[in-house]
């Protein structure tokens, strides 16, 4: 052991290397999450962090992996600080790797300050309740699963479904109403090279990169880097939101790759596995990421999270979506059945919800009829889906005239409201007008969730007839 001119304490007694882990002997003073610099005999340097320490032994997780390392000829330098990300207004418009190193050919940003990537917990007493609308430009989200500033709303997808398209579309189109500053922090975790290139090109070509910060962690990068990517991205988001007073949307895709990396490292540490081999602390670990979203009293900015995860075998009870659902405020579930019908985005609205939607919509935020229209769409579409199943058994000839109208509504809802071109950015007014267009397929008497005044104002009927004085009484 010796003191180093680079700072920190240096050790050369490496007991064991296993997977991405390094066991260093003789360590008497090391802290959890402390940054460690590994120097090879060739002069190459790698970074790691302390996972556990005690009885003269420290277990170090190496970010770049342990390939090419041996137990002799390397030095471990404990730096006395956690991994930090340099932050300044110059990070906006930049592209970084999973550890915050530049990928765009430009020099590293000169940081006004360096922030611990593990963040600091927000005191629940200082949290402010989310209640301001974020417009994504996607009708089904804005109209029925409204995203609110400070909310965490995950997208549950499946292998092969277009979640990457939806993520890029939201990153490109999302905005807050009014003149307040808005930014997107996009973290791609464990993605393929072509996916990373798609995200970069999508933001560059649309001009959205000017107000975005992009972090790209590739599938062939070490698992350890995947663990740090969302934390580095959220550190930048916290700086933009709480120091620069910006409203920040953080998109994290794919959280399943993050959880797989966590499982890999847990196995290397020989921890007792939990459900499906994931570590027992998966819930706690996911919470350390998701709970970094929110608003703080006295601060103008906000962090809204849109984590995206692929459900293995489309199983919504799998530990990753299951635990995510406990922590977050709702979910947007993509449907393979709708995808096979050629509908984009294939959002299964009957399995989806936004728990904070009611507080972010209405007069002065979106439009006065928003809540009622959303409720009516849910009610009518669920009935249409039930009637489709019934029609397969008894045939359409056994259905009433009103039932047939509901089947017509279901088709119109999927074709006109749910389905939306990847390049189309719809305002909330356009979304609600489309909702009325598909609701007008139904007889007025079926609009039981909507007040009389709104029916008179917006309902057109199939041929544009005016409302009758008795319609919609149930929603009065």
TrEMBL record:
Belongs to the ATPase alpha/beta chains family. This is A-type ATP synthase subunit B. Residues 359-459 form the ATP synthase A/B type C-terminal domain. Residues 15-80 form the ATPase F1/V1/A1 complex alpha/beta subunit N-terminal domain. It comes from Conexivisphaera calida. It is found in: Cell membrane. Its main location: membrane. CDD domains: ATP-synt_V_A-type_beta_C, ATP-synt_V_A-type_beta_N, V_A-ATPase_B. Residues 137-354 form the ATPase F1/V1/A1 complex alpha/beta subunit nucleotide-binding domain. SUPFAM superfamilies: P-loop containing nucleoside triphosphate hydrolases. GO terms for molecular function: ATP binding; hydrolase activity; proton-transporting ATP synthase activity, rotational mechanism; proton-transporting ATPase activity, rotational mechanism. Component of the A-type ATP synthase that produces ATP from ADP in the presence of a proton gradient across the membrane. The B chain is a regulatory subunit. GO terms for cellular component: plasma membrane. InterPro entries: ATP-synt_VA_C, ATPase_F1/V1/A1_a/bsu_N, ATPase_F1/V1/A1_a/bsu_nucl-bd, P-loop_NTPase, V-ATPase_su_B/beta. It holds the Pfam family ATP-synt_VA_C. GO terms for biological process: proton motive force-driven plasma membrane ATP synthesis.
């Amino acid at each position: 052991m010796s003191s180093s001119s680079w700072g920190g304490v240096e050790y050369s007694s490496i007991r064991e290397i296993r997977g991405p882990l390094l066991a260093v002997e003789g360590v008497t003073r090391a802290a959890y999450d402390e940054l460690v610099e590994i120097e090879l005999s060739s002069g190459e340097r790698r970074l790691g962090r302390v996972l556990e320490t005690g009885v003269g032994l420290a277990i170090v997780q190496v970010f770049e992996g342990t390939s090419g390392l041996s137990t002799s000829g390397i030095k471990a330098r404990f730096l006395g600080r956690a991994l930090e990300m340099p932050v300044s207004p110059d990070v906006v418009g930049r592209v970084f790797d999973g550890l915050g190193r530049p990928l765009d050919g430009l020099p590293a940003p000169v940081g006004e300050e360096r922030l611990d990537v593990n963040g600091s917990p927000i005191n629940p007493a200082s949290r402010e309740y989310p209640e301001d609308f974020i417009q994504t430009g996607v009708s089904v989200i804005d109209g029925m699963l409204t995203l609110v500033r400070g909310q965490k709303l995950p997208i549950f997808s499946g292998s092969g479904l277009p979640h990457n398209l939806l993520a890029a579309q939201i990153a490109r189109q999302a905005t807050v109403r009014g003149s307040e500053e808005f930014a997107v922090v996009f973290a791609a975790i464990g993605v393929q090279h072509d996916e990373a290139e798609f995200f970069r090109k999508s933001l560059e070509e649309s001009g959205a990169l000017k107000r975005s910060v992009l972090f790209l962690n590739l599938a062939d990068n070490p698992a350890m880097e995947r663990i740090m990517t969302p934390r580095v991205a959220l550190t930048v988001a916290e700086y933009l939101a709480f120091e620069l007073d910006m409203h920040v949307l953080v998109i994290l895709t794919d959280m399943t790759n993050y959880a797989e990396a966590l499982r890999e490292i847990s196995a290397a540490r020989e921890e007792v596995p939990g459900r499906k081999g994931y570590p027992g602390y998966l819930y706690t670990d996911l919470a350390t990421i998701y709970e970094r979203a929110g608003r703080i009293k006295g601060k103008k900015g906000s962090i809204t999270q849109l984590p995206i995860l692929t459900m293995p075998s489309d199983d919504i009870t799998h530990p990753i979506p299951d635990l995510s659902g406990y922590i977050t405020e709702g979910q947007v579930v993509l449907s393979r059945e709708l995808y096979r019908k050629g509908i984009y985005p294939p959002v299964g609205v009957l399995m989806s919800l936004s728990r904070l939607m009611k507080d972010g919509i209405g007069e002065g935020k979106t439009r006065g009829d928003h809540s009622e229209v959303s409720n009516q769409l849910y009610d009518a579409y669920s009935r249409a889906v039930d009637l489709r199943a019934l029609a397969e058994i008894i045939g359409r000839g056994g259905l009433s005239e009103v039932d047939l109208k509901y089947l017509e509504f279901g088709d119109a809802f999927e074709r006109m409201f749910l389905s939306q071109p990847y390049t189309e950015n719809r305002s909330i007014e356009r979304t609600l007008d489309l909702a009325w267009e598909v609701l007008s397929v139904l007889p007025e008497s079926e609009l039981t969730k909507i007040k009389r005044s709104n029916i008179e104002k917006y309902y057109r009927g199939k041929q544009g007839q005016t409302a009758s004085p008795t319609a919609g009484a149930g929603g009065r």
